[in-house]
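Lecture 7 notes: from sequence to structure.

We start with a single chain of 65 residues. Read the sequence below before looking at the structure.
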Amino acid sequence: MDISYNQAAIAPQDFVAQDIPAQDFATRNGAAQGFTTEDILWSLGIWSVILTFSPVIAFYMLMVA
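Now the structure, written as tokens:
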């Protein structure tokens, strides 16, 4: 078996990741960053779905088990 012509997508062993500048999550453009209205509405939507379906799932589990 000749494996000298290996075309596997493997990075070279001496691969060094490029320096990627760290993102500053605390500030954006020098101003403090907080929750937006979109964030609050998204979280309310997710929690409403979770709380709405939890009794349905519990009832289903009681009926199946």
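The beta strands are 27-28, 31-32. Keep this in mind for problem set 3.
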